[in-house]
Fold this sequence. Notes:
seven-stranded mixed β-sheet, 7 strands, disordered N terminus
Amino acid sequence: MASRLRPRLSARIRSPLPTVMERLLSAWAWVAAVLLVLIGFFYVAAIWLVTAPFDPGRYQAGRALRRLAVSHVALTRLWRFETEGLPPEGPRRPYVVVSNHESYADIFLVSHFPWEMKWLSKHTIFQIPVMGWMMRMALDVPVRRGERESAIAALAECRDRLARRVSVMIFPEGTRTRTDELLPFKNGAFRLAIEARVPILPIAIAGTRDCMAKGSFAWRHAHAKARVLAPISTDGLTLADAAALRDRTRATIDAARRALQRELGAEPA
């Protein structure tokens, strides 16, 4: 058994200094990202203009934006992504979708799922020209980290998206992790689900830290997986149950991500 595992484990040991080829591939990935954003803006804008009058949830504009992320992965061929699990029951049944957060590559991976979600994202991303414009057309939600008033306003916008019958996507850790340890989950997503009376939809992610680690702008060859888990009902819950719902969801995601890590040959010590 040990001899069969060794090649998979050793394949994940990386030199701290990227090779020349890795630097070139990473540079190409950035060029491809910029080109896709610039060209994709016209695609997303066209979808927005055609569908906005009868699509108040901007479902189709959002899907168009997520397809750009999928296209980038296909074009650069640096990342091998796998998605697993059953999709939500009905694409327009809203959920509060929550996931662990390893790197910016999580966004590209989760975009492969075939339903639309509005993303709760740092306000600084919305300030990026063209990219931010597309996110606003898609009705994604900005939030200023650490500012209570901004968090309250963002959750109000999330309730609006759920009322428009579109799911929202939240990373309850609040930031990307640098290690294999799962950070504590914040309460906001779970209070939102209880107040809006929609289920929690957990997603577990593993392997994206190798794609693009926190604090690094390098894109690297990696294999990552995301798995949709069973929805968790909020029927009959009150805000007093938010902490228990949070802890249950965190435990569910933690167990699933560890299973994915084992499948990838990267179980934490």
